[in-house]
Amino acid sequence: MKDKTIHYLETFGLSPIVPMVRLASGESPKRQFQDLFEKLGLPLLAIAIFLALWSFSAARVDTSLGTLPGPTAVYQQYLGLVDEHKAERLKEVAFYERQDKRNAEKLAKNPEATVKVRPYTGKPTFFDQIWTSLYTVFAGFVVASLIAIPLGVACGLNQKLYAAVSPLIQIFKPVSPLAWLPIVTMVVSAVYVSDDPMFSKSFITSAVTVTLCSLWPTLINTAMGVASIDKDWINVGRVIRLHWSKQVFKIALPASLPMIFTGLRISLGIGWMVLIAAEMLAQNPGLGKFVWDEFQNGSSNSLGRIMVAVLVIGIIGFVLDWMMLSVQKLVSPQSSNA
Amino acid sequence: MNHYLEIDHVGIEFPTKDGPFRALQDVNLKIEQGEFISLIGHSGCGKSTVLNIVAGLYQASEGGVILEGREVSEPGPDRAVVFQNHSLLPWLTAYQNVELAVKEVFKGKKSKAEMAEWINHNLELVHMGHAAHKRPDEISGGMKQRVGIARALAMQPKVLLMDEPFGALDALTRAHLQDSLMEIQNELNNTVIMITHDVDEAVLLSDRIVMMTNGPAATIGEVLNVELERPRNRVSLADDAQYNHYRSQVLRFLYERQQNPAQSSASKKPKLVSSGEAA
């Protein structure tokens, strides 16, 4: 039972909690306290020092928008953003209630009347923007993975194909997202024309930019992973005359899963960074736009609100990476000791 | 006269940066059904290359391999291979590793229940029934190689090819596996070609020992018939005059007639598909 709990905790990267579990079960307390100090105590100490330095030095920087906010001021701003979000949600509920009531009255007077249901068009709050950014990055990342993994497998299996596309990969890999953005915007406006668009153009533009930049790490890692499979494994497949598709799904893919996941993690990290920059530059909805709007707004609260956004962007990036790592450990347990 | 397996004037050249490298020249060998053949020679002499040509993993530059009257030029389960480094897929259990081969080889010939029974039967044969649901990283090197043998046997091959199957194991484990292999051979009477550089192993297990000259352009130097009664027992054979005579004949071939070339030409050796001769 205990070992199982510890195994799951380690799978999900929650190793700081492991010593507590061991401690609770009475396992050599002295070692556990030492472990606890190393895994939990030291990071907490570092965070405390960071907060102290921040609060000390921020107070000494005067900007045109007032002094740089310290940790407490930033926390106040965070609470303010939560309040704003709640207020906005209340307004939305009230709006729909009024609309429903008006329509009901209209229908009561005249059952034939056509009633209109209009969506609420309030200003997106900080938390709405987080949500927008999250699903945009996921859309871009999923599309990138769907292209990069099959192409990577093909390149890994066929050295000639890899040699052929390698220069293209090398050239496009280092291109900054901001250079892609104008082209993507123009192409999307020209190509994505529909009367009843399922997605907004800004969403497509942001997602495509994420795709273009997060394609490469997965592609390269998958190709490397597949190319470096133990030759004997391939020969096993040849001896039992595995069909090539089974060769891919039963041998090549599982064998290169650890490398593929390394690529996916890098890709998702890049995708998240790229998205924020793209949103800032293109004024597409999302956290990037929130930061830019606050910067343009220039009230005394702005710097604090931007700092909230910076911290949230960092925490989300960390959580995304942690999720990928957990999935990797779940689907390919042998990669942890590879 | 027709033989079960014929290696007929096989030669092979590998392209290298300094021009073609001739690894094998004029290798001729006729093998009868149920024979156990050992290929022995110094590292880099091309033993593995011969095996890989029989397996179909390499294409001979000239000559060919004839199995039951038909030429074989590509890999297939009728010539199952036991690789030196077990080559089990690490994400599958022992059972699943054997299952992957069985499902492919007996597709449409055995029902699901029959396959399951066949997989378990083969794992029992190598004494691995108890660890059927363990993954390779949970079992020892000797056990992995047992599973590798079970996988090859489960293909019901016409010829079983073993590429230094016990080379990576410690002496005691190796002895255990050799005994298991003799036991299995006693029961199934497979046709086997085994590569080894262990003289005792060759004499103990084989009906014939094929000794290869050093490369480049390696070929068969001598063939030694081992006429020892079966079943053989390693302990009683240790003092057997006949056994020791065979042993010294192989040693004489290897160390007097074919000097170890490792120092002079090892660097020229082309990369082999199998992980090579770790000596």
TrEMBL record, chain A:
Primary localization class, coarse: membrane
GO cellular component, one term: plasma membrane
Compartments, record wording: Cell membrane
Transmembrane segments: 40-59, 134-157, 178-194, 206-230, 251-282, 302-320
A biological-process GO annotation: transmembrane transport
Coiled coil: none
UniProt key word Transmembrane helix: yes
Keywords: Cell membrane, Membrane, Transmembrane, Transmembrane helix, Transport
Chain ranges of the ABC transmembrane type-1 domain: 130-324
Bilayer topology: Multi-pass membrane protein
Entries under PROSITE patterns matching the protein: ABC_TM1 (PS50928)
InterPro entries: MetI-like (IPR000515), MetI-like_sf (IPR035906)
Origin superkingdom: Bacteria
Family statement: Belongs to the binding-protein-dependent transport system permease family.
Protein name (record): ABC transporter permease
UniProtKB/TrEMBL annotation, chain B:
Keywords for this protein: ATP-binding, Cell membrane, Membrane, Nucleotide-binding, Transport
Subcellular location: Cell membrane
Keyword Phosphoprotein: no
Any single Gene Ontology cellular-component annotation: plasma membrane
Broad class of the protein's primary localization: membrane
Pfam families named in the record: ABC_tran (PF00005)
Limits of the ABC transporter domain: 5-239
Stored SMART domains: AAA
Membrane topology: Peripheral membrane protein
GO molecular function: ATP binding; ATP hydrolysis activity; nitrate transmembrane transporter activity
UniProt-annotated stretches for the region Disordered: 259-279
NCBIfam families in the cross-refs: ntrCD (TIGR01184)
Family per record: Belongs to the ABC transporter superfamily.
Protein name listed in UniProt: ABC transporter ATP-binding protein
